[in-house]
Design brief:
Elements: H1 3-17, H2 28-44, H3 51-57, H4 64-77, H5 86-118, H6 144-156
GO molecular function: cyclin-dependent protein serine/threonine kinase regulator activity; protein kinase binding
Protein name: Cyclin N-terminal domain-containing protein
Pfam families: Cyclin_N
Length: about 160
């Protein structure tokens, strides 16, 4: 499981544990996120940065003692349960994935509209030309390779 996604799941768990009206230090959100990230790295990867490296990553904002205390407190808050079930994973990440899903659906619809436009039959003087024909049409029409290139570009975009 990717470390950052697991971190998001841990933070979501915390949001159901910590009361919304809790009085916090200005750095509390940073502490919660960083300690969730540290636990996620340790639990979901074979090799994780040391506490000294995390101190460096934080720009020396947190001391080694801060990080050790934050990790212990986070483990207590999570009741030492770092396993993430697939149902929890998808319920937490669905709000993040939904906009991406909507964008992909929109892109697919746009591509389909372009393909439909390109498949329109051209009928001057009772002659029919289709993109699938080897002779695509009268002089000045796009060649088959040009249309295929256009479709490829549209797929990339």
């Amino acid at each position: 499981m990717p470390t950052v996604l697991a971190t998001v799941c841990y933070v979501a768990r915390l949001s159901s544990i910590i009361p919304r009206d809790a009085i916090c230090l200005p750095s509390t959100l940073h502490r919660l996120f960083l300690s969730s990230l540290i636990l996620s790295c340790k639990f979901h990867n074979e090799a994780a940065p040391s506490f000294r490296q995390w101190v460096d990553y934080s720009g020396d904002y947190f001391t080694l003692q801060d990080l050790v205390a934050m990790e212990k407190e986070m483990m207590n808050l999570l009741d030492y349960n770092l396993l993430i079930k697939s149902t929890e994973f998808f319920s937490v990440l669905n709000p993040l994935l939904e906009p991406i899903s909507q964008d992909l659906k929109h892109i697919i619809l746009q591509k389909q509209k372009v393909k439909n436009v390109l498949q329109i039959t051209y009928k001057p003087h009772r002659r029919t030309y289709r993109i699938s024909d080897k002779n695509i049409g009268p002089p000045g029409c796009f060649s088959q390779s040009a249309l295929q290139s256009l479709l490829l570009i549209l797929e990339i975009c």
